[in-house]
Amino acid sequence: MERTRLIVIDDDASFGNFVAQVVMGLDIDVDVVTSAKQFEKLYSSHPYDIVTTDISMPDKDGIELIEDLAEIDCHAAIIIISGQDQILLKGTEKIAKQKGLNIVATLQKPFDVEEFEAAVMSVVNQ
């Protein structure tokens, strides 16, 4: 059985590396990118099972990225993680679900690691 693949998209490299450390402890292959452009390059050649994304990035915000994921018919489970307020997070989640994306969690930074792990494991155990 292939290992679950996860990608972290966050312009804060130290935060992305923190998330990667949490995920590696769950025996999951993980990549970290700091821009939507880097993600698009990787995703086109290596689809992921789980995508975690910030919604506030310099090159493309998370809402634009979500629209792109919907356009390519992304089947990955998506976890939105951002320091933005709950209203923006929930609005982004609603847009993503309306576009047919599989949002498994929306977490505000700083987030509860156990809640994040539970969201990831809900995908792994499907």
Question: Would you kindly provide a written description of the structure presented here, covering whatever features stand out?
Answer:
Strands 2-1-3-4-5 form a five-stranded parallel β-sheet, with helices on both faces. It has a single domain, classed as Response regulator (Rossmann fold), CATH 3.40.50.2300. It has helices at residues 13-24, 36-45, 62-71, 86-98, 113-124; strands at residues 5-9, 29-33, 50-53, 77-82, 102-108. The chain is built from five helices and five strands. The model has no long low-confidence stretch (mean pLDDT 91). The chain is globular, with a radius of gyration of 13 Å. It has 126 residues and is of the alpha/beta class. Strand 1, helix 1 and strand 2 form a beta-alpha-beta unit.
Instruction: Outline the biggest β-sheet.
Output: 5 strands, parallel
Helix content: 40-55%
In CATH, the homologous superfamily goes by the name: Response regulator
Rg, rounded, reads 13 Å
- Stretches where pLDDT is under 50 for at least 5 consecutive residues are none
* Broad structural category: alpha/beta
The total of beta strands comes to 5
Number of helices: 5
Mean pLDDT: 91
Domain module tally: 1
Q: Which class in CATH terms?
A: Alpha Beta
Strand content: 15-25%
CATH architecture: 3-Layer(aba) Sandwich
Shape: globular
The rounded distance between the terminal residues' Cα atoms is: 13 Å
Under CATH, the topology can be stated as Rossmann fold
Task: Please write the string of helix (H) and strand (E) elements.
Answer: EHEHEHEHEH
Identify the strand order in the major beta sheet: 2-1-3-4-5
